[in-house]
Amino acid sequence: EAKQAANVHATAVALRQALSIDADTAIAMKERRYAEDETKDNAAEIDLLKRILDLGKKNFSLSHNESSTESSPFSESSQAALNMAIDQVGRWDANAAQTILQAAGVEDAEVTIDETSRELRHVRKYAISLRESVGRCLEAVSALTSVWDSDNDARISKSRREFWAAMSTFFSGKVSKDLRNVRVLANAGVDTQDRGGWLGVKFEQESPLPQRRRCGEATKFYLKKRDSQAGILISRISKLLNEYERRLEGIECFVYMHIVGIQLEKHCSVVRAKSLSAWEKRTDISTAINVATKKKIPKLVEELRMKLDGLPQVSHTTVIKAKENHLASKTLKTDLHKLANRRLGRAQDVATERVIGIVSLWAKHEESVAMEEVKALGKAVQEVELSIEASDVDRNADDFSFISSVKKEEEELNEPNQESSSTSKGIGVNRTLMI
Q: Which parts of this chain are annotated as the region Disordered (predicted)?
């Protein structure tokens, strides 16, 4: 136990030294003030969302030819998207992205990765892998927490106490009050009075002989040191891992902000192209109607008017507004990507700090507790050594010498000898029975 504790301590010290950073890096870390930048970006995100919703309102009016959208279904979806964004600022997921796109007028809003860049797909793959790793770590911490739970049957501290209680009973030599057992063990040199104090203070009064030491208390003290603050360590690691999930949500937000920008610009581009195409068709048909009217071809005029009525009601003003909306969507796409890139850049600057923090916390705990274990074990071993007197050693040495000589004689008698095999075997059996 002491050797293992010493090895753990040495490994923890080496790990902590490997994770330590120089003074310049520590100063640079302290000088980084990301809280203020994050607050500004959160406000910028809400402002961008309002601009997206305003653009969606314009697209809705443009496609439905309505001057007011206050009581339309669009206003409800817009408010729902705004509320969601405020609650999840900096933490966009697939559901949030889809809600925002629908509120922006994208009717077939599908959050896909197919149309994104290779770099964006790489970041998304990294985020998925990282989330799986953090999930496995949280499962491991949960399993450790369960064995420290007082209501759990597999509680590790309880198992240790029961093990040491059984070992202490064994080392104490305490037996039932059957005098034959006591006499046999006493003749064999076994102390049946627990003079080493393995069973604790409450058995001291029952012993007719004074206890020499307190070995039981020393071993219990070691158990306390070994389990010292383990529950606190597990709780702190669990808290750090839960905070690490916030970083994962930030990385995922980077991906979905890019997706929203791409899908929004694509939608406005399609709306602009359709508006322009419909306006050009109406213009061409109107020109043809004028020509047919001048040439007095009523049948052709009637046919052209039917085609004109079948086209969407698109004016030149509608085309201009669609163009403005498309240009605005490009600006929004650029601003969204800049915001996402700023946040990802800050996340990259502190990419390993949280990992180092978790591992350093663990290493410092093991370094401290392992050293306390070594000290407690040293005291326990010393207590056991002091509980043994010279008379105990001499008696055990005499018994060992006697048993060794008997075994040697028995081996000599059991050597292969065809002439006296039966006699030697009988002598060996008799001597064994005597022992």
A: 407-435
